[in-house]
Amino acid sequence: MIVSLNDVLKDNVVFQFNFHNLEFLKAILEVHYEENYPLILGISESGLNYMGEDFVKGFILTIERNYKNLPIVIHLDHGKNLEIILKAIRLGFSSLMIDGSNLDFESNVKITSEVVNICHRIGISVEGEIGQFKGSDYMTDPEEAKKFVELTNVDALAISIGT
Questions:
Q1: Is 137 tagged catalytic?
Q2: Four-point Cα dihedral 73, 78, 82, 83, nearest 10
Q3: 141 vs 20 pLDDT, higher one
Q4: Which of 7, 11, 54, 77 is catalytic?
Q5: I want to staple 115 with a disulfide (CB 3.0 to 4.6 A). Which of 14, 50, 97, 98 is the partner?
């Protein structure tokens, strides 16, 4: 069954797997089905472009049909703009990352808040991201992270913690 990120993070440590081919996807699903353990299937923008919308839509329908008792999050990983976010919503993703980490703080808050407002109304979880990899010792400022979460109401946050 396809669920939101919030649904699986309540009581679990959950792994996210990004995949680009059927063999890897099949192996992931088989192991998690056998163990009855929830998972996050991540698809990046480049992965979505590589696989194509028809494949991804078919894959989501297959997941819904064949894995009714296994909690699975279909997650857009590192969506950079509203266009790719809206495409993922249209295709049936249950969770999205809006990656504004390359923007200044205020611009990142603005686009992330916009995505949260759209997604939360339709039951889709949103992950935001702050901080860029600027070298091996760069770490996200905890106060900035707290402020970002408060301003945007994201469900999850990706941060920089060095290498």
A1: no
A2: -90
A3: 141
A4: 77
A5: 98
